[in-house]
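User: Modeling request: complex.
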Amino acid sequence: MTLLAHLPPLQMVLPLMAGPVCLLLGRPRLCAVWALAVAGACLAIALTLLGQILDTGVISYHVGGWEPPWGIELRLDALSGLMLSLVSAIAVVVLLYAPASVRHEIPADRQGLFYTLFLLNLAGLLGMCTTGDAFNLFVFLEISSLSTYTLVSLGRGRSALRAAYVYLVLGTVGATFYVIGLGLLYMITGTLNMVDLAQHLVNADNPRTLLVGAGFVVVGLSIKLALFPLHKWLPGAYTHAPSVVSAFMAATGTKVALYVLLRLAFTVLAPSFSALHLPHPVTVEGMALILGLTGMISASVSAFLQTDLKRMLAYSSVAQIGLMVAGAALLTPTSVTGSLVHLINHAVLKATVFLALGGVLMRLGSVRLEDLAGAGRRLPLTMGAFLLGALSLVGIPGTAGFIGKWTLLLAALEQDRWGVAVLIGAGSLLTLAYVWRVVEVAWLRPAPAQAARVPEIPLSMLVPLGVVGVANLVFGVYTAPTLGLARAASTALLGGATP
Amino acid sequence: MSVLAWIVATPLLGAVLIALARRPFTRDLTLLLIALATLAQVLPLISPVLAGERPAVTLATVMPGIDITLSVEPLGLIFALVASILWVVASLYAIGYVRANALPAPKRFHACFALAIGAALGVALADNLFTLFLFYETLTLTTYPLVTHGGSPEAVRAGRVYLGILLSTSIGLFLLGIVWVFSLTGRLDFVPGGLLNGVIEGPALAVLLGLFVFGIGKAALMPVHRWLPAAMVAPAPVSALLHAVAVVKAGVFTVLKVIVYTFGPDLLANTPAAHWLMYVAGFSVIAASLIAWRQDNLKARLAYSTISQLAYIVLGASLFVPAALTGAAVHLVAHAFAKITLFFAAGAITTATGMTRVSQMNGLGRRLPWTMAFFSIAALSMIGVPPTAGFVSKWLLLGGAFDAQAWVAVGVLILSTVLNAAYFLPIVHAAWFRPPSADPPDDDSHEAHGAHAHGAVSRTGEAPFLLLLAMGLSTLGVGALFVWPDLPVALARSLP
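Assistant: Request completed. Predicted assembly structure:
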C-alpha cells in the first residue's frame, strides 16, 4: 500500500537515480540489461498508475507532504497516464533493440554514457508528464533536453556535433523563452502550481503581461515540439543522431513537448484567454490551426525533396506534429481525441520506420535513397516492417495511421471545415508521394551488381522491430486501447477548458 | 468462422500456400484447388440469397459505429460469383501463360494474384462502406506488384500512374465522401432504400455523389481513367482477370452499391442536381469508344473499350430506375465474360506469335483459328449481337433507358453500338478475310501455312492448350448467358 501510494514520484525518480549507475557498471552489456530492467519497471509503474487513474480519477501527490500550491504537486489525469505508458513502452522497445545497434554505431567507451543519458532522458520525459507544477516542469524539460543534446552528439561524424550544437542553441532559446514567460505569469499571480495558476490568471487584472507571458511560454514550447516555422533544429538532429536515438526522439520527445503545450494551453491558459479580447479575426486557435496546417503541407513538400531517408522522415515528423496541433486547435472533443490518438499511433509508426532504418544503416551502411536499390530483396523483413510503418504513415485503412486521420477528418467535417478536411487529405497524398519513392527504389530497382549478400539484422533487433511493426496493424483494427484512452484523455483535457 | 469470412480468407490462405510451395507443379495445383475451393464456397450462397436471406458476420469493431462486417446481398453475390467463377478459368490461363512465357518470379505473381482476388471478394461481401473501403484499398495495393511485375522502367512509370490515380482519388475524394456520410448519419452500413434518404438534398447531394463517383477511381469514369491503359503493361492474365474483371468491376460494383444502398435511387431520381451523372457517363461511353478506335496496340484498344463499357454500367445506374439498374448489374456480368475472353485472346496471340498490334493481325485467323474464333465471338458480344451475353444486357439497359424516358441515354447506347462495331469488326475482318501481311520478316509465302515459316518473332502453331481451354470456357459463358440469363437477372431484379 505504501509503495503504491508513492508510485507517482517513483515513476521519474527511478530512471533518474538508475541512470548514473550505468557509469559505474562500465560494461556495455551490463548497462543494457540494467537500462532495460529500469525501463521495464517504469512501464509497470506507468500501467499501474494508468489503471488507478481510470479507476479512481485524478491522482494528486504532494511531494514531501507539502500542500499545493506551496509544495510541488504531481498531478496525474488520463492524459498523463497515457503519455507515461506510451513513453515507457517505447523506451522498452527501443532498449530491446539498442544493444546490437549501439554496438555498431557508438564506440565501446561511450556506450555506458549512452545508457546513462538514455535513462536521464527517460526520467525527464516521464517527469514532464507527471508534474503539476509549471517550474518543476521546466526542470524536467531541461533534464530531458540536455541529455538529448548529448545523445545526438554521440552520432557518427562531425555533422552530428554540428546538429547537436544547433539543437543546443535553439533548444536553449526555447527553454529560456519558457522561463521568461513563466516569470511573467508568476509576476501576476505569485504561484507556479498549474491549477492554482489557472484560477489566478482568470482574475488577473493585467492582460498585457498575461499576453506577453503566455506568448513567451507558447513560443518556447513550440521550438521544443518543432512546430512550423520553429522546426529547423529537428531534421539535423534526427538525421545525425544514432539510429536508436532518432527512433526514441521521434516517437517520444516531440510528443511529450506537444503534451506540455496542450497541458499548458488547455489547463492553464485557456480559461483566462477566453476572457481576453484579441483584435477581431485573430484567435489563438486560429493561429495554431494555420501554423499547424502550413507546417504539415510545407514539411511534407520538404520531405519529398530529401534523399537522406532519416532526414525525410524527420520532415515527415514536423508535418505530422503540424497535423496534431491543427487537430487540437479545432477545439472539439472529436478533434482533440483525433489529435491524441494520432499522437499515440504516430509514435508507434515512427518508431517502426526509424528502427527499420537503423537496421538498413547497419547492413547496407547508408540510408540514402540511391543506396537502397534492391533493399527490399536484400533485407526483406526489415524493409517489410518499414513498408508497414510507411503505409501506416500514409493512413491506409487497416493500419494505425488511418485511425487518427479518420477521426481528424470527421472532426473537420463535423464543423463544416472543408478546407481543413481537404488539406488533411492532401497531406496524406504528399506522404504517399515521398514514401512511395522509397518503395520503388527498394523493391523495383535491382541491387547494384557488385553488392554483396547481406544477412538479415540480428534477432535482438528484429523482434522489437517486428513488435512495433505488427502493432501498426493491431492498432488499425483493435482501437480500444488507443482510441479509448485518447477519448478519456481528451475529456480530461477539455474538462479543464470549459469553466 | 463463418462461411463469408472463409470466402475472403481462402484466397489469402492460398497466397501463403503458394508462397510456400516448392515445386512448380505443387504451386500450380495449389492455385487451381484454392480457386475451386473459393468457388465451392460462393455457389451455395445462391439459393439462400434468392430466398431473401442476408447472412452477415461482424469480424471486428474498429471504432464505435464502424465495424468490419461481411454480408451477402444480390448485387454482392453477382460480383462474387463473377470473380470466383472467372478466377478458376483465369487460373488455368495463368498457369499456362506463366509456363509458356517463362515469367520471372512466378510465386510472387500467383500469390499477389490470389491476394487481389481475396480483396475483390472482400469488396463484394462488404456490409458497410468502411469494410468496402478497407478491401478497396487492399485491392489497389495488392495489384501494384502485378502491374510492375516486369520491373522495367516503363512498368515502374505505369505503376506510378496506377497507384497515384487510384490512391489519390480514393484518399482525396472517396474517403472524404465516406467521412461526410458518417458525420451526417453516424453509420456506414448499406440500407435498402438508401441510408441518406431524408438526410441531405439539393446541390450538396450532387457534390457528395461526385465525391463518390470520381473517388471510386476503379470505375474509370473519365477523367479518372488514365490508370487503366497504364496498367496494361502487366502480364496478360493480370489484364484479363484484374483489369477487365476484378479491379474495374470492384469499381463499378462500388458505384452501384453506393447508389442503391447509400443514396437510394429514389432520392437521386428526385434530385435534379444529381442528374449530371448520366451526361458524364454518356460522354465517357462515347469518348472512350472514339479513343479505342484509334488505338493500334490491341491491349490499349481493349482497355479503352473497357472504359467505355464500364461507363455503360454507370450510365445504367445513373438513370435511377429499377429496370436500368437491373441492366447495369447484368451488364457487369456480360462484360466480364466477354472482356476476359478478349484479353485472354490478346495474351494468347502474343504468346503464340509475339504480335501486340492490330495492324499486324491480318490473316491471323488461319494461324490461330481457335483463338481468333473465341476472340470474334467475344467481340460480337461487346457489340451486342445475339446470340451472346452482350445482347441480353444491352437489351435490358435499353429497356431501362426507355423506362426512364432518358432519350440521351438511348442515343448514347445506339451510337456506342455503332462505334463498338467500328473498332471491333475491322480486327475480326482482318483476321479472317485479309491475307497475312508479309512485313514483319521478309517472307514471300502467302499460302495457308506460310506464316509458320516466319522468323524469330513469330512462333508457329496455336496458343498452348491451357490458354485455349480457358478461352473456350469463358466463351462458353458468353453463349450460356444468352441462353440462360435467368440467374443474374433474377439476382439483379431482387435488388431493393
